[in-house]
Fold these 2 entries.
Entry 1:
Amino acid sequence: MALKIVILIKQVPSYDNLEIDKSTGTIVRDGIENVINPNDLYSIELGLNLKEKYNATVSIMTMGPPQAEFALREALAMGADHAILISDPRFVYSDTLQTTLILKEAFEIIKDYDIIICGSQTSDSSTGQVPFQLSEALEIPLITDIFTLEIENHIIKCHRNFGHESQNIEVELPVILRTVSHFNNPRFISLSGIKKAFEKKIQTFAYKTFNFPEYIDGCNKSPTRVVKIEKVEIKRKNKILEGSLNEKIQSLIQIMKENGINNVYSGQKK
Amino acid sequence: MITMNFELEEKHKLVRRSVRNFAEKILAPLAPIMDREEEFYPEIIKELSMMNLWGITIPEKYGGAELDSINYLISIEEISRICASTALTVSVHNALGAIPIYKWGNEEQKERFLYDLASGKKISGFSWTEPNAGSDARSIECMAVEDGKDLILNGSKIFVTNGSIASVFLVGTRYQTIDKQRGFTLVIVEKDMVGCEIGPKENKMGMRANPTTSLYFNNVRVPKENVLGKLQNGFKYAMQMLDFGRIGIAAQALGIAQAAYEHSVKYSKGRIQFKKSISQFQGISFKLAEMATKIDAARLLVYRAGYMSDRNKSFPKEAAMCKLFTSKVARQVSQEALQIHGGYGYMKDLPIERYYRDAKACEIYEGTSEIMKLIIANQILRGNI
């Protein structure tokens, strides 16, 4: 039976031109291009590789406002088979815990899945909590930082890097995999992929799809509150060295030593 | 209520995003090197194939991406924003190679050529211009004389875009006659046919990464099955092909202008002189305002022409207007960009001087600006006001 893979992605404001409204302390979204969270591209690439290798079917799922459909179209154009958009006014302002509960509802509807792939974290909030919470909620194992994997007889063998350790892990499916950034090269979207992507129907899950569970209420039941978002400015300090060339070199070496750079070759023989 | 929609469709936006991403990652590092070395790197052909850029509007059943003309124009614009020479290669192959075979070719020709062209397995070129036939397109002398089941081609062609990388050429010939008004026939010539010789690469001011050559035909025996469409209808086909070709050239000019403009905004905000960024001087900011306005107007003309093409409307006037205006905008904008960058812009370390050199070609090939005015004037005076 073909493997069923579900990849979780998020649409985020483009990293290149992120601006923060100082008065409200929130990210300015007007006029900003939205993109697939860069870390999620590695998940999509992994999923598509598995599809080619194991004849799997790949579904892409995202939760977000209606315009997040564009991110799903992008993923479909890369080669995914199906797409699901979870969207409802009641899901707005969900924190990671609410998001996880909603995802749990979604997976109860999907029922049949073997591998869930998540990116490491989003570029707009960087919490990285969902994979762990989802593992608890669905009561299935999570393997983080995977590099290579093999699947045989419903068992997945993963190679993962953990700090300085290299670990080999074997787990029975279903499983959640969390990818690391830059471990593969996400493919470009070809033009013929784009045509196909727009011919596909996107499945939508709303509050009513889940039968109105009371504990889901993004706005009122999210324990996390974002108080403020600030842009951290990293400023370079200039220091102009005075004196002759030799004096300048000596003071530069001095500064480097003060900052912990000890092996300075000064040009003078010891 | 009928409304006018200036908003691009989601599909167009995704095409722009993906071609831009591809161009910035794959073409950007190569563009300055290919320009300097005057060399088209053949490995790009494969990369462009994977993007399906060789058969943008060709139906899926022939291996194309089956997208509309606006998607084609956006693709050319985005490639050109990074490498105008590559945009030229792709534009000519699509508009003057693959599309005419799809449009006028018979099923056998489509089977024989279109798969290979749409997949980029073979690159195509269009060859009409001769040493003595430039703007005066009716004065071509390349002869196609009947000999049993074949045509025998004799003559020479110049300024053939894609010359040394193409293996399929659509060649403008005179069938049996040198009567100035008759006999124009388009023939599909393959480069390895006996007697077909490709000349040395031209040394050009701009578009240097596009290999432009001459083509010589010395008693080339071409089967009659290689005649595109009907005998003696070649001029009509060529003019229609060029209407579509021209909007591709306009899209290419648009990409160059866009690149020059983006560089100018960025540079002028960062360049500090007299203790403030030069963008704060009206002398510079007004230039930026002019650039932005011209590019916007040009883009509307380009997409409008694409819109007409998608609705199968005849658009010689609009195509000519679009090329006339946009190529001029590209030249002006890249010139002003060079001025804003000052001495740095004049150096080959920055791409600005390349934009300026590349932009100039757009006012010349696929019909000079003067010929565009002639077409527009003819259309107006004929009643197409």
Entry 2:
Amino acid sequence: MISSWLNRTVLRLKALKRRRQLDRDLDDEMAFHLAMRAAKLEALGGDPAAAQHAARRRFGNIGNVKEQSRAMWTFTALESWWTDARYAGRSLANNPGFTLVAVLAIALGIGVNAGIFSILNGVALRLLPIPSSRQVVSIDQIFHGKLRRNVHGETTLVSYSEYLSYRSDNHVFSGLLAYEPFLMATLASAPPKQLFGAAASCNYFAVLQIAPSAGRAFVDSDCAAPGTNAVVVISDELWHSSFAADPAILGKAIRLNRVAFVVIGVAPPGFTGTEPIPSAFWVPLTMQPSIEPGREMDALGDANLSWLAVLGRLRPGVSLEQTRADLAVISARLDQRHPGAFASLAIRPATFLGRQEEQSFVFGIGGIILAATSLVLLIACANVANLLLARASARHREIALRLSIGASRWRLIRQLLTESLLLALIGGACGSVIAFWSFQGISGFLLGHLPRNFPPLALNLAPDWHVLAYAFVLTVITGIVFGLVPALQATRAELNTALKEEGYGAAGAARRGGRLRNTLVGVQVAVCMILLLAAALLMRGLYVAQTVDPGFRMGGVASISFDLRSQAYDDKRAAVFQSQLIDRLASLPGVDGVAQAEHAPLDDSHNQTNFQLPGGHGERADVDHLEFDNVSPAFFTILEIPFVRGRNFTEAESRSGANVAVITEAAARTYWHGADPVGQTIGHGKKELQIVGVARDAQVARLGQHPRPYIYLPAGPEHQILVQLLVHSAVPFRQTETAIRSAVHMVDPDMPVDIAPLADNLEIWRTPSRIVAALSAALGALALVLAITGVYGVASYASSRRIREIGIRVALGAGSRDVMGLLLRQVMRPVIVGAVVGMVVCAAVSSVLSAMLFGLRSYDPLAFLAVPVLLLGVALLASYLPARRAMRVDPITALRYE
Amino acid sequence: MTAKKENPGDLLQGTLDLLILKALGQGSQHGYGVAEWIHATSEDILRVEEGALYPALHRLELRGLLAAEWGTSENNRRAKYYSLTAAGRKELAQETEHWRRLSGAVARILQTA
């Protein structure tokens, strides 16, 4: 069977090479037959002409026979497709204006989609850049039920003992590794450098199949006992940036968080670990207590602490299902340790940003953005469909003619679809190329301009086959979506009317086409309205965010952050450091206040804990989970947060860590309902805290939300190792900064310190909404341009079709006002319907949006007024211009038109 | 599509193929010769529309049952000569056997009725 098919294909391919020869052979063969037959008949008696005629009669339809044979010898279907494609190419080339506009619209639509997808792909879908990355899976542990779990990082991370269980009891992995992600350490150098790295199990490099470019990777003995093997593998980048690619680095010691580590290897260039933030170093997991001193946790010993990310390399031939089943057994056994709760495992191919929380975040945001870009593509499709409709009615007679001489409808539809697919492919290719190029630039720019608290990100946005496949599939779908309806419409002609009419357009078809065109315009305007309104709402939200009053003073305040724990301080040394530094800072020129706070206002993280309060809403009637901060009395003074009742902490209370608390107005309202809380007590752990004052609400924990209950506690002796400093100074920040830095280094020359204006913390809150607003403004602008092009196209088409009618009306004495009104009404009706639909839909969607981003109100009157006015105004202009052109035509010319 | 719509005249397609194979069983022959042989041996009872022979010949050639070669005819004209391949000979034997059984069965049915 297969061999005969092969034989046929080979013969056909041979035939393909000599098409003319084949045709000549066929001709010769038939001619030979006819000649022989005619000769025979002639020999039987009869004149030559009659004999030839009889021979032909006996032979049958020569053309038909040739056609059959030719079809057998060639790839007919393929060739007719090729003919279609060539025809489509010619017809596109003959209408450069149409082609250009259509390709541009598609390129914009596809390009913006492909670009966004390439970012999403680079962020969350791309497999890790390691050998045989398909075999490597990440494992997340998701707990259900009531469980008190200690968390260092994310809740889906596993504990050390859980990791050991999975590692020893599984039957599916050739290796299972664990590491503590985002480990921060200070490299002792001049100046000290903050690095991100990882504490990794000693099979880390073996499982990932990454061989160091110099030296060796970890071996099992490096992880033999906690705290005994201070060795480190550094990244190629760190080797170059901090050690000038010193070839003798191996065997030298470097100091990380003041502990000496011996460099045993340099990772190969380009390997930066398995997290989006590049790792600069890797130390054995068992060195965690040494590199993170002073944490009140026993990471290696606490079986109930989430802190390790886990990656496993599957044995060849093991499926994800088998892996899930195998690990579920282990996880069920581990569940016995904590009654009342159980864990389910999320196992998926390992990517950057592969953990559960990261994935749901990225795909949530990505989904919304892709939805918006698909809307832009939809507008582009409607545009091109409208162009094709207009073109189809210009080709009405051609299509009717082809139908009437026997072309099947399917054949014509196929040809029209080939044309739209060709358009889509050209547009898609242009759009994708531009997108891949420009989005890498755009995201590079964005990553380069993140606020200072954002760590550097390693994003590979180069298009891989995921992105190419996405762009291609999207292109094909696009081509069919905008091509099918016009093709069906165009080939449904009534032959008689179509052939008879002289360019007026068959009444029936024209009306149907008109309705379709109006629907398309309506959809475009509606979608455009949604995008523009969403963009406007986001921009308004951004404006509110920029101008919100956080309720405390930011001007002139600098925040000074350092991590005493990682610098191997203990409580006693920390207290000395703090008091010496405060003294030095207070004596700087211009400084009129120095305050301590564990978390500076609007820091990117904040403390939460349980407090016992009257009438709480938590698990117990009197327990609530509240945000709090440990501060010194000066905190309220330099931030200008006034007291509405009672008093501030005293210096003495702060120094001794007395059992007192200051609560906020919101807390007073929530728990004491207008009664005076001063003098009352709240429970905090085993301590009873007496409330000494009520401070005005301020947005110290998060920006732009309704005030929530908040507690201030005095920064006592046990907090000295934790607290940061806030300084208010009358002199400009640039000068204070230098003075502060030298003050810190006079107290401890090796202390890494970060000094920034407090107002910078606003950026953490504003950056996401700023990026989203910029993106949505760009998308909105794109949508507006596309939709208005659509309205303009339809308006010019409608006007040009009615030039004769206008001529007659004007000749009969109609005023130009009436005629103009007529034309505008015709085009604006679907526009207005679309606009109203878009506004209604957006009103529904905006309440969802307002919940997601700070500062966004769902029914912003300004947005809901300005956007429709803008959109309708531009649409009116787009329909007025063609109408005016049509009216300027001299009635005599108009009557002769076409 | 059009390639599949054959027009075998008054004959079933398989029958025409069998007749062609049988005709070429006598030795290599051109299309006209095949037509003449069918007319002669069937005493003009089987009326084949002569043109229908050619698509059938080409189909058999593509299936590898026939080999084709250009040669010179008895009256010195360029003509395409077909001959059976090994596969064609096997097919001829099979189809002949099949046809015998079928026609025997039909004959028996007609007798009993």
